[in-house]
Write a structure and sequence with these properties.
The protein is of the alpha/beta class. The protein has eight helices and six strands, in the order E-H-H-H-E-E-E-H-H-E-H-E-H-H. The mean pLDDT is 84.
Length: 181
């Protein structure tokens, strides 16, 4: 499981800080969520991004976006740090018993020590950004390799053995075709 302090990432990632400053916090949140959905899928993580509602007079709210990704907005007067710590505390015995791994992504050093005390692993905002970039490069490399073609015909994109087999099949079909009148 990956728990992400959302506003901590927005404040630490230069590109998201720029989006926040130019287009607002809502757009920065949306872009972070999109980035992390792709990353979580590539790494097979169950992920929850947590945003503070510390100064908002609202109840906590969870948005489940798919089976492995959700967004949580904390209760009034609750910080993302306290919510993440609560989750780590609740899952502490499960972590120890089943060898599950919880990774908390934040650059808050005091928070790092607290979650590690509950048995969770810690990743800084910069480390997560590096991991996200690596996953994106790996995805592009895999998909660009699969899409290479040496010509405009479908057959040119096949490996030589498949090309040979298709030629053989075509020749057999032509030989068996009845003569034209």
């Amino acid at each position: 499981m990956l728990l992400v302090d959302g506003y901590n990432m927005i404040g630490a990632w230069a590109d998201l800080t720029d989006v926040r400053d130019r287009h607002g916090l809502e757009e920065a949140r949306r872009q972070l969520i999109e980035i992390l959905i792709s990353f979580s899928a590539s790494r097979d993580y169950t992920t929850e991004v947590v945003f503070d509602a510390h100064y908002q007079m609202t109840q906590g709210n969870r948005e489940v976006l798919n089976s492995y990704f959700s967004v949580y907005y904390t209760d009034y007067r609750q910080t993302a740090d306290s919510y993440i710590e609560l989750i780590c505390c609740r899952l502490r015995s499960a972590i120890q018993a089943s060898h599950q791994q919880i990774i908390v992504a934040t650059s808050d050093r005091a928070h790092q020590q607290t979650v590690q005390g509950y048995g969770a692993n810690w990743m800084s905002a910069q480390q997560l950004q590096t991991e996200v970039a690596l996953a994106e490069r790996q995805f592009r490399k895999r998909h660009s390799h699969n899409q290479k073609s040496s010509g405009r015909f479908l057959m040119n994109g096949l490996d030589p053995a498949a090309q040979k087999r298709l030629v053989e099949l075509r020749m057999n079909i032509e030989r068996k075709a009845p003569p034209s009148p």
